[in-house]
Amino acid sequence: MEKSKPLKIFVVEDDEWYNNFLKYNLELNEDNEVHSFKTGKEFIKKLHERPDVVTLDYSLPDMDGDKVMKHIKDFDSNIQVLVVSGQEDIETAVEILKQGAYDYVVKNNDTRERLFAVLNHIRKNVELKEEISALKKEISKKYDFSKAIVGNSTAIKKVFNLIEKACESKITVSVTGETGTGKELVAKAIHYNSKRKKKPFIPVNITAIPSELIESELFGHEKGAFTGAQQRRIGKFEEATGGTIFLDEIGEMDPNLQAKLLRVLQERELNRIGSNKTIPLDVRIIVATHRNLADEVKKGTFREDLYYRLLGLPIHLPPLRERGNDILLIADFFVKEYCKENEIPIKKLSSKAKSKLLKFPFPGNVRELKAVIELACVMANDEMIEESDISFNSSNNMQDILMKEMTLKEYQARIIETFMEKYDNNVLQVAKKLDVGKSTIYRMIQNGEVQQK
Amino acid sequence: MSNELYDIEQLKMATGNDPDFTNHMIKVFLEEAPKLFDKLSNHFEVNDPKGVRFIAHQLKGNFKAMGIHSWEDLRAIELAAKEEELGKIETEMESVQEKFPKIIESLKREL
Fold this sequence. Notes:
Chain A is an alpha/beta fold. Chain A is built from 20 helices and 16 strands.
């Protein structure tokens, strides 16, 4: 693990003996950077150096403790103040805590242990805050869509253009595209590049929630609203206040719920189940589906009025097979990402590997390409990913098989292999099923054209 | 070593039984406490309860942390100073003034 940066601690204590006592104790931990001050004024002059923690004696000769505390909190409320005092009465402690101190340590024989325990807590808090801020930066970097959504094809450039438009307003966005084309990635890219980026992005997959729970999941419920509602629960819409809710697989939504969603969208307010109180809705809505919603409307499985309300700005994500050379750009992106995450030297795709990728139709789209590339990175013995390192597992239907453009002889061998696997390498049974001579199969096995698994 | 003036184990406990740390704190006390003690005596002589209270409070904390028994005299002095009744604590002042040089000498031998 990377060594954390030192915890900067300012000791503010006029008593020379205690000042030394605290400083010596704190410096025992080499992860602490300790500076000590004898007066409030001396300390305040150095406050701009931003300590993480201040241990403060509340009875300084030149300034009242509460004034010093106010200075600190006005300057930066994230600086933690640990009051170290000779006063043992609870009232003083409570008063100091009310003013914003992190904790209160009494000067006695336990001071050292208490001091260490409190500082450990503070250190963990500081580390967590740093981690959160690093993650926030990471997220905004991750969803910088010009980097996260890779491609140069005309089809994807149109998508970029639409995403940019979506970021500029709070219009509802409907994202369509086959499975694995990156619909959630587009939703996140819109959220994290919009004015709402500091507020939550709440994804909800409609198909992943049992139908009897979905209403309460989306809109929340009050305690006792129904059997089992033992506590109030905030719904996803409320959770997303100020931010974005992403309703994935909206085409699968039950007609009853469609009616409720429509009402919420029309009124721009909602009621938790079991409550009369209306809650105003300040949520940006992005929906996604792999279905053609217009067709669903025609079939009568999706409400027309809801369809028009949700359509907003439609963004259609093209399937990978229609994105030409984007396949190679994305493959290269995934290779680099995999190698970086696994801290291994960056690998390259051989030209045969590239042409193998270009021939494959990728029914699972970008998601499938990612899986194929990760496996290829694992299989590759050196820095070059060869054709043999690339294997496809999803091609079960005839269309996919035909897209592989193999010779008739190769197709024959693959078919026999599939049957051999199915019938436990029983050549007689396979010969009978495929209506070929068993000697043909034996010959192909002998020649190595058919591999037994 | 502990004696009738102080219990050195108190300080050892406060310093986590770290001999270097214990010695460091004894040295700080030997250097700082006589200055404070002189101030206390001066404030007492000029009948300045505010000054007495402030210094007695600080010395009391140091004495207590060092395991020096006469911290209780200092507590009485601090309280009386708070009430602005320095006349009531002449005995305690005399007692602590008499013990203080002995404490210093004895602590020097701890090093």
